[in-house]
C-alpha cells in the first residue's frame, strides 16, 4: 500500500486555541486496520481523549472522517462521519451524513480532519487542495444556515462545499446538528454544539481534483456503470427516487408502528394528511441528489407563501422529521411540518430531538401539570403547531421552558421529576427516532446497546427479515438471499428476542456498522433496497485500495468499531445500566393495529445479557481481554 | 365487486401515479388477498396486508367495500 490507493494518507489537524494547522500522515497500519469512517473516528477518540471529559470543554475534540471509497465516483459514496463526545449523552457519538462535502474533502487531498482546542473568536476553516486557512467568521455568527451558505459560496465560489453548524450550535443547544449544503445532516448527538463551543462555524472545502487514484480504475468504472444500470429501474430504488424516505410514513402507519402522541399510540388518524404523498402533492418540487448518486432520493420543496423561512432552500422533510414533527406531536397540518422542518434546518437543530423533546413536554403537561418546572408555563397540547414554533424559539433563546428543553429530553425529565422519565423517549440521553420497537424488538435491543444511544440505523429492522427471502426485490419486498452469506438462514418473528434473534442482530449490527466504516449509503446497500451484494462490497474495497480483503475481514473491522465505541463509553463512565429502554417500551401500545403489544421485559433483559456474551463482554458490558486481543485492541485493555 | 386498495412503501410502483393514496378496483366475488396479489405479480411472502384497519392473512376473503392496504417496510428512514 506504498502509494496509498484509495487514500491520501493525510489528516488535517487544526488547533483552534493556537490557530496551528498542520497535516499528519495517518499511516499504512492505521488505515489498513481501521479503514475509515466511524472506525477511524473512534481510533483517534480513543488515542486522544483518555479520560472522562465535559463535551462542551476545551478538552473535547471533533473528527471528520472519510473512507477509501469516499469520493470514488459511484452511487452512495459522498458521505462522511463526524465523531466526538456527545453533549447530549456524554459518551461517544458518530454521526454520518450524505451530500457532497465528504467527497469534496477527499478529493481535496485529505482523508480526515481533527479539530481540537477552542478559538477565542468565531472562525471558519477553508480548505482548497494544499491550502488550509482559518478565516474570521464574525460576519457569519448568529446568521441562519441559509445565509451562511450563501455568503460562503459568494466568497469562495459555487462549487465550494459548505459544512456548518447553525445558530443552535453557536448557542450550545445540546441537539444542534451539522449540515452540509443545507440539505444533508450529521443529525444526531449534538455534534453541532461541539463545533459551536469551539467557535468553528463552518468548514468550507473546495477541490480542484476530479478523481481519486484507485488501484483498479477500470474495475471501479465497470462497477459504477453496473450500479447506474441497476439502480435506474431497481424495484426498491425506483420508489426511493419517486418519494424518498417520505414514502415510509404510510406503511409504518399501516403496520401500527408510526410513533404517535409521544409513542403512546402506533397509528395516526391523520396519517394520509401528513404523508409524503400529500406533502409532495402540495409542496413537492422534484428531487435532488448526493455526490455521484443515481438514486436522487432527496426531496425538494417549493417556497410556501408567507412562511417565516424559505422552505425551498432546505430540502423536504425526511420520514424521521415528518413523523417526529407530525404524529409524535399530533400535528395534522402538512404545511406546518414542512415549515417546522425548514425552521429547524435554518437553526441547525436535530428535528428528531426537537420532536422528542416537545412530545415529552406535551405529555408531561397533560399528565403531570402540577410539577414545579411547569409553574407559569403556557400549556401546550397535541396538534398545536403554532405553539411548537413558539417553543422552538424559546429553546433557541433559553427562554423559560425552552431552557429546560435545550438540555435534551433526558436532562429535562431529570429536572422535571415525577414519572416523566418513564415516557422520556431516549436512551443514554439520545432521543428515539421515529421507530416503534414494540413491533420490532431487536430495534429496541439496538437502541439499548448502541454506544450513541437510541438510533434506528444500527441493524436491519426485524420487519424486513421476518419472512422467507426467496422472492426477490422485484416483488417490492426484501431480497434476503444475500444475507445468507453472513449466516442469516431463516426468517424469525419480529416480536421476539429469542437467542436466534439476538444472534441475527449481532451479525446485522456488524454489517450495518460496515456501511458506516465505509461511509457508504445504507439505502443503496441494505438487503431490502440493495443494488449490490456483499461480494461487491469486498470487490470495491479491493479495487479502491489494492488490498486483499474479505467480508470476514471487513466485518471484523466493523466489530472492532462497535467494541471501540463501547470501550470509549466505558471510559466516559457508562455501565450496563445505561443499556436499557424507557419504561414505555414494556407497556402496551395504546392504539392502532399493534394495540396491546409491548416488549417482554424479561426477554429483553435476557437478550442484553446474551448479547454481551456473544460480543465477548462481561456482565458490566465491558469487552473482555480475549475479545480485545481477538480484535487487535489489546492495547486498550484496562 | 368493488373494493378500495392502497400500495405503500416500495409497492408504490403499483400505483397509477406516485402520490396516489387510494383507488377503487373491481374484483371477482370470493377473491382472496392472495389472489389479488397474484393478479399484480406481487409475492405474498414479502408484503403485509391490512384490511379495514386490521392485519389479515393472505387467505382472507375480500368483501364488497373492503379497504385493503398493502405495504412493505424498510429499515431506517
From TrEMBL, chain A:
Residues in Aldehyde ferredoxin oxidoreductase N-terminal domain copies: 7-209
Write one Gene Ontology MF term. 4 iron, 4 sulfur cluster binding
Task: Report the Pfam families cross-referenced here.
Answer: AFOR_C (PF01314), AFOR_N (PF02730)
Keywords (A to Z) from UniProt: 4Fe-4S, Iron, Iron-sulfur, Metal-binding, Oxidoreductase
- What domain of life is recorded for the organism? Bacteria
CC cofactor? tungstopterin; [4Fe-4S] cluster
Q: Is Metal-binding set as a keyword in this record? A: yes
Give the family this protein belongs to, as stated in its UniProt record.
Belongs to the AOR/FOR family.
Name of protein:
Aldehyde ferredoxin oxidoreductase family protein
What organism is listed for this UniProt entry? Candidatus Thalassospirochaeta sargassi
UniProtKB/TrEMBL annotation, chain B:
Q: Out of the domains of life, which is the source? A: Bacteria
InterPro entries referenced in this protein's UniProt entry, alphabetically:
Mopterin_synth/thiamin_S_b
Name of the protein in question: Uncharacterized protein
In its UniProt entry, the species of origin is given as Candidatus Thalassospirochaeta sargassi
Lineage of producing organism: Bacteria, Pseudomonadati, Spirochaetota, Spirochaetia, Spirochaetales
